[in-house]
């Protein structure tokens, strides 16, 4: 028997904690969920299924996540918004004692001034998770969205 | 009791001040929109349809749009590329439902009329009816019921289509300057498809069209640009209207030292925050000067695309009108077939700059989607376009609206407004 990296309940908590940071717009806390050499991307299902690499958000390494957070917080101009993440169906696909491959569905509702809340994005997370200094971290997170197109803009990471 | 001025509906004639004013009704009037589609997209223009690398083999197809009309770009058995309307000649149903794929022929799911890759009607079920009953009349001529086929032009790795027999040749249509810039990006090496971003923007297509002709806003509204010295008003910059205002290009010579300098101009830009540091500088530097000219820029090829090169990020922004108050942007990112691993990664990284989540483009769709209801609420109002004077000549500055004025000179002439 190989040693398990984490239980399903732990993975679920990890997902919820990460989503809570984004819902609270506490973007500064977001990079800490990733390893130094991570890959984080928000990619359309169209590209993902067709083996195309382009992703509207493509961060190779934690430094790029930090840059995106800095840019969003300090310089980007966008309408005020509230995001709510709804995550379900968390599953562990494999666990070799070093790295977990896991997936989950996500639904992100966006609320803007003068408008009814709308679905910003729906899709699934495809993740590789490792433990560093006792804490779970994303080595790779692909947020694969089913939407045909992005409505207006994608500001906050998924 | 106050007598409110009765608002008279705005007369559909252009303001007396000419091209330094744009009347707001052109952004919402359904008749104007319908005329634009007829005059431009379905008229004597070349419309972007796709890249040849999107349809690599015979039978490979891709859905696209000319104006609001769905079309199919398909590679024929002899290797040439055809563009046909994605509309069955029988009852008008959508033939091709997949975004991209491969097929032996084009067959309509509704009544199974099938067409070859040129759009010729090959056959239809029950042509002679069943059990001696029904069927098409004897005189039904299949050759008269093919898919509507568009004229196609291929330039380097790009594919263009037009409805009109009278459209100039593609080279005459673009003119030499645009052709040179297009060739620089798409004609030297075979292209490689990197992927798509699709974005719905709830604004009239012209607001976006003007936006990419408006360098004035760029350093102000996109602080990312000025903060990292990518584009700044004190840098080398050129705004060049072409072919009577129909097309345009803008370019700058990248200056890695710009970020470290302050000047009278940079001090006017409130949005420059000099203490901001980027950790992964590969995203904002010309790591590899692949065209050996240190140049960065974009050009508009009327009426459908802005072709853009930001360092090593190459992208075609295809603007697809969706009624007077909306348009879709299909961003097709590309590279070259011989890109090595480092170059592939660089293109992906620098793609963070432009697109629906782009550091230097996300503000555009935010502003324009908020602007649309405002212009709709005041169709009688006018835009003011006097930055850089009243003319339409090329200018070596960002602080100019010459490109928008030049566009409206062209637009008024074609639309007879």
UniProtKB/TrEMBL annotation, chain A:
Q: Which InterPro entries match?
A: NTF2-like_dom_sf (IPR032710), SnoaL-like (IPR037401)
Chain ranges of the SnoaL-like domain: 5-141
Q: What is this protein called?
A: SnoaL-like domain-containing protein
* Signal peptide region: none
TrEMBL record, chain B:
Read off the InterPro entries from this record.
Answer: Rieske_2Fe-2S, Rieske_2Fe-2S_sf, Ring_hydroxy_dOase_asu_C_dom, Rng_hydr_dOase-A
| Domain Rieske, chain residue ranges per copy | 46-161
Q: Which UniProt keywords apply?
A: 2Fe-2S, Iron, Iron-sulfur, Metal-binding, Oxidoreductase
GO MF, one annotated term:
2 iron, 2 sulfur cluster binding
Q: State the Pfam families in the record.
A: Rieske, Ring_hydroxyl_A
- Family annotation (SUPFAM superfamilies): Bet v1-like (SSF55961), ISP domain (SSF50022)
Is Repeat among the key words of this record? Answer: no
The family classification in the record reads:
Belongs to the bacterial ring-hydroxylating dioxygenase alpha subunit family.
- Which PANTHER family does the protein's record reference? 3-PHENYLPROPIONATE_CINNAMIC ACID DIOXYGENASE SUBUNIT ALPHA, CHOLINE MONOOXYGENASE, CHLOROPLASTIC
Protein name listed in UniProt = Rieske domain-containing protein
Q: Which organism is it from?
A: Novosphingobium lindaniclasticum LE124
